[in-house]
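Subject: Re: docking follow-up (zinc ion)

Dear J.,

Thanks for your patience while I sorted out the input files. As discussed at Tuesday's group meeting, I've set up the holo structure prediction with zinc ion included as the bound ligand rather than trying to dock it afterwards. The sequence and the ligand SMILES I used are pasted below, so you can double-check that they match what you have on your end before we go further.
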Amino acid sequence: MVDKTIIKKIKAQVESKCEEMLSFFREIVAIPSTDSDIGAVAKRVEAELKKLNYDAVWWDKMGCIIGRIGSEDAEVHLLYDSHLDTVGIGDIDEWDWHPFEGKEENGFLYARGACDEKASTPSMMYGLAIARDLGLIPDNMAVYYFGNIEEVNEGGAANAFVVTEGIHPDYVVVGEPTNLNISRGQKGRVEYQITAKGKSSHAASNHLGDNALYKILPIIEQIKQRQDDLPNDDFLGQARITVTHLEVHAGSRNVVPSAVTIYVDRRLIAGEDAYEELKQLQALIGERDDITIKIPEFDEPSYTGFVFPLEMVYPTWLMPEDHPFVQMGLETSKQVAIESQISKWDFSTNGIYWAGKAHIPTIGFGPGEEQYAHTVLDQVKLDDVVKATEWYTLFPAVLKEKS
Ligand SMILES: [Zn+2]
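The structure tokens for the complex came back this morning:
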């Protein structure tokens, strides 16, 4: 149990920094960071981290910005993960206000990235600085703010950070919107690419060709049928399989196609594995030379030109409800008078790397509601940004007490 006077001090400190923090929040929302280009917004974040006297502030190769408080040789490393990129704005005519200038009304800030997820950045950055000022960061602990890139290839920036910086956190909090609940998992996903090869000919002499489109049709039908065999999970929901895209390789529309590629989106629940599913789909196709299946790679360069190729596998992760780290999240909420429930995300997050691949205890906690992410109603309640700051301030102390 944390001393009540500590809670009072946290609330007073957060209150005193509130205006400064929220004006920083409005500034970073106004700096566009679509298409993975976080350069400009991360530069603004860098200046604020320095102003808040972080012990170390640096950029990694991918172009993510990191702030650390505490010694790099600490025994325990706690990382707060906040992605600074946003999805695009789509059709600007669909917005009733400017997506980057935003609109403030009834205590809500409406703008692209308000909830997904620029809101967690000021809360985390100020929270950790206030925790240091109040002596709430244990001597053996280093805490990190990690402002990263997530939208196009979730988990990629996190994975690259661990590899290039050689820092392997012991605990991670992901700041994607949870509406101040404690998220303990999400479905995984994987993409498959299936290519059928035939032989081209003029459509006028189709008997001389071998139509790749006809070859892929039964495969598409079998994938559609496979949905009925997929398992369901009480907490994460139904596993899903969908053919989402088809490319026809033919010179023109009067040619028998020589190759066709389809893409399959598979949503995985707990206990399912992307490579097991690959075997299942391979069995469904059969062993044949003219139809091949693979998991494609993500190898697009970041805005700094850094390439970190990864298979497009995003594992499911699910922390047990009674896991001490999940319970510490709930405990922290209770201490700062936030009524958090246990929750999950429907969308995908960097948790697929931290918990799914690196098996690091991970929870999600952030202001904003997932339902507004990626929409023209992207919004966050400013009071919740402030409340989240109290949570991020106290959490290292709860982690110390319980671990
Ligand atoms: Zn997000």
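A couple of observations from a first look. The chain has two domains: 4-186+316-402, 188-298. The longest strand covers residues 188-197.

Let me know if you'd like me to rerun anything.

Best regards,
T.
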